[in-house]
């Protein structure tokens, strides 16, 4: 555990940031940048009309009291800043002249990061207060949550804010990398909808030429990917994602006989058929009730099958996994006393960063000194029309979701991502449309790393790369003769990011893990299910969050290289670290901290004023914690002096969604429609904000998938495309000056 006296070091030393943040996501972005060594000046009073929120977001920051009237009022701060971070709604940003066009004359080379909660345009971008329940309704998250009845479900944690915060911080640092290389300032938008696109990248899909398989909202979707109850009444999750993994699980359980039942007929892929999956799941549930949970977990772990017990947050926080990954840190807060909170969830070997204290002091409201110039001279002609990571070569030796999400986010900022696959392809290609969505801007090279000639090709590729991302088990690279040390020796400037499940050390380091494993271990599934069975959300917050945090660490390491010491370094992230960070508020402990929300099956929200309600033609979201406003709305709808807010649900059933929203607005109750899953990719509001686009799949035709995870004011990312394994092998080998061998296909 670190103490307040530890020196705060990091790759962003000397970087000055002005933070005008009202929402948890933007405050998190500023916090992460401060953890990485930046000097963050928070404008105090900007959020005085909003709830205080988690005070831990202010760690490592200084404060300045400046009325945020317009750009002129902040000109002294902005003139000496490297990054300006604001999350004002579009109308408010324009009224206060805080948009990029207004700020640019004051600070020509500044990175302008805008993080609006709902998007940049459309009816809801200006009319709603920041609220995770409303964003989940508008964006499709609520409609995709598992449910028994076909209804929207509220999450017990804010699933979007941690991911938007990490994506925003990544964009800010990517902008610094671009400026260090060509001297140009840039502007980026990372909205709440961008974060939703990242979270829902494998869920929000639609086939135009043929139907796309969708797991739907089932709480137990397939027998290989669901919660089971053991004989001691304790719950655990089986996470055998692929058919091959499920066969391995059945073998370890001594139940290969299930492959021979008529519904499966020897084809393990048929468990995806709902009727067949239901039969197998029922048989397995009966089987698991014959022994206690520990018995089954031991068998599955011996078979190297991802699985996890459903635990509580207290068990997670006090366990060896968190201790081994440095998951929590304590700092003294001047008002709240000792505060324990999630640590910086990404580690850099050369410039590690650290959580700062709450004694940052008060910054001056004027020019706070001259920003030091970037240490390295610009290598390129200034080119603001290019994305900031243009020309950065990233080698992607990862599979499934967390690692590929990392490189997808880097590609969004202009990086040239080369995905290295075995000749048979990434195992995640089993889910070919989901694979397309997360790998659409990458080139593919097929290499069999068991062959020395292909290992030599990989060494040549890594020797000319800026970044390597891999999620291999500890020791796997060494067994292939591709140790991190040998790669660093051949290319000292290489930034090497290792993405793991449980971290690189400790007893669990070699265990596999998927997102639901960490939902269970970290207490999220228990909290979402409440007194009922634990519930795993369909939103892959740990995979996506790990990808975003990995991209942040990589961008920070690149900035340190280009602006300072010129060397690469190791970046370590894990789903285990992200599991604590994803529930940042819930794992922040201090005297008097607020109680945490607990859910239930088909959880609609915590109380009638903050809930998803059924109307005559759809669902509406209400988000009001002020009881008197809800009471007034009930009285108006009932045309009486009715004083019970619980009656609002029955009253809304007689109204259309639009009528319900109009009534709510008249009484000061924030409200919006809940997006239906049917035709969601063509929703008017999402389309206005550029949420999705159409990509032609090489086998299945046109597919509507999410467009991206950030928008730059100039420059566009590589064209999206679907690939077969090795489509670009010859092209990439030619760039390396090598010929293609027979084993490369």
Automatic annotation (TrEMBL):
Transmembrane segments: none annotated. Residues 351-387 are annotated as: Disordered. One of its GO terms (molecular function) is catalytic activity. It holds the Pfam family CoA_transf_3. It comes from the Bacteria. PANTHER family: ALPHA-METHYLACYL-COA RACEMASE, SUCCINYL-COA--D-CITRAMALATE COA-TRANSFERASE. This is CoA transferase.
């Amino acid at each position: 555990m670190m103490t307040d006296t530890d020196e705060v070091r990091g790759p962003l030393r000397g970087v000055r940031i002005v933070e005008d943040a009202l929402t948890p996501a933007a405050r998190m972005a500023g916090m992460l940048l401060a953890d990485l060594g930046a000097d963050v000046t928070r404008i105090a009073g900007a959020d005085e009309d909003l709830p205080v929120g988690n005070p831990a977001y202010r760690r490592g920051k200084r404060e300045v009291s400046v009325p945020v009237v317009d750009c002129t009022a902040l000109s002294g701060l902005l003139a000496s800043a490297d990054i300006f971070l604001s999350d004002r709604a579009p109308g408010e940003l324009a009224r206060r002249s805080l948009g990029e066009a207004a700020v640019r004359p004051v600070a020509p080379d500044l990175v302008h990061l805008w993080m609006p909660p709902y998007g940049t345009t459309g009816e809801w971008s200006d009319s709603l207060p920041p609220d995770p329940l409303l964003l989940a309704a508008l964006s499709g998250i609520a409609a995709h949550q598992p449910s028994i009845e076909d209804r929207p479900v509220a999450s017990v944690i804010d699933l979007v804010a941690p991911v938007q915060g990490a994506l925003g911080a990544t964009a800010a640092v990517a902008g610094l990398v671009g400026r260090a290389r060509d001297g140009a300032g840039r502007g980026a938008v990372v909205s709440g909808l961008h974060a939703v696109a990242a979270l829902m990248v494998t869920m929000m899909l639609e086939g135009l030429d043929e139907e796309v398989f969708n797991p739907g909202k089932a709480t137990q979707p397939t027998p290989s990917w669901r919660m089971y109850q053991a004989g001691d009444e304790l719950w655990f999750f089986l996470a055998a994602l692929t058919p091959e993994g499920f066969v391995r699980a059945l073998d370890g359980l001594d139940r290969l006989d299930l492959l021979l039942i008529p519904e499966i007929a020897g084809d393990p892929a048929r468990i995806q058929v709902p009727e067949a999956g239901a039969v197998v799941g029922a048989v397995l549930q009966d089987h698991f009730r014959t022994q206690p949970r520990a018995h089954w977990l031991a068998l599955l772990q011996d078979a190297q099958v991802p699985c996890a017990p459903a635990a509580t947050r207290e068990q997670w926080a006090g366990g060896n996994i968190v201790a081994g990954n440095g998951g929590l840190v304590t700092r003294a807060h001047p008002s709240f006393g000792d505060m324990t909170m999630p640590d910086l969830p990404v580690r850099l070997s050369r410039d590690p960063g650290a959580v700062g204290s709450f004694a940052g002091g008060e910054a001056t409201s004027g020019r706070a000194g001259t920003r030091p110039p970037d240490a390295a001279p610009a290598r390129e002609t200034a080119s603001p029309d290019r994305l900031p990571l243009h020309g950065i070569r990233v080698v992607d030796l990862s599979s499934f979701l967390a690692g590929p999400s990392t490189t997808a986010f880097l590609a969004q900022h202009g990086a040239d991502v080369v995905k290295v696959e075995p000749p048979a392809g990434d195992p995640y290609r089993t889910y070919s449309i989901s694979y397309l969505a997360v790998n659409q801007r990458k080139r593919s090279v097929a290499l069999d790393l068991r062959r020395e000639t292909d290992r030599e090709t990989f060494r040549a590729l890594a020797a000319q790369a800026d970044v390597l991302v891999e999620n291999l088990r500890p020791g796997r690279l060494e067994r292939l003769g591709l140790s991190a040390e040998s790669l660093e020796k051949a290319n000292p400037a290489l930034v090497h990011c290792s993405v793991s499940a449980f971290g690189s050390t400790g007893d669990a380091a070699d265990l596999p893990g998927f997102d639901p494993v960490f939902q269970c271990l970290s207490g999220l599934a228990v909290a979402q299910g409440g007194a009922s069975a634990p519930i795993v959300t369909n939103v892959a917050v740990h995979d996506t969050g790990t990808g975003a945090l990995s991209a942040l660490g990589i961008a920070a390491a690149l900035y340190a290289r280009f602006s300072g010491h010129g060397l690469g370094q190791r970046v370590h992230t894990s789903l285990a670290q992200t599991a604590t960070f994803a529930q940042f508020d819930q794992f922040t402990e201090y005297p008097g901290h607020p109680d945490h929300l607990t859910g239930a099956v088909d959880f609609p929200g915590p109380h009638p004023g903050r809930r998803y309600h059924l109307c005559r033609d759809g669902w509406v979201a209400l988000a009001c914690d002020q009881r008197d406003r809800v009471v007034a709305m009930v009285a108006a709808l009932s045309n009486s002096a009715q004083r019970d807010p619980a009656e609002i649900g029955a009253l809304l059933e007689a109204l259309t969604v639009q009528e319900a929203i109009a009534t709510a607005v008249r009484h000061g109750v924030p409200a919006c429609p809940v997006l239906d899953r049917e035709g969601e990719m063509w929703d008017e509001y999402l389309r206005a904000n550029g949420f999705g686009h159409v990509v032609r799949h090489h086998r299945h035709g046109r597919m509507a998938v999410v467009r991206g995870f950030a928008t730059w004011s100039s420059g566009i990312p590589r064209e999206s495309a679907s690939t077969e394994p090795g489509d670009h092998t010859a092209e990439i080998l030619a760039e390396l000056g090598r010929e293609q061998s027979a084993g490369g296909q």
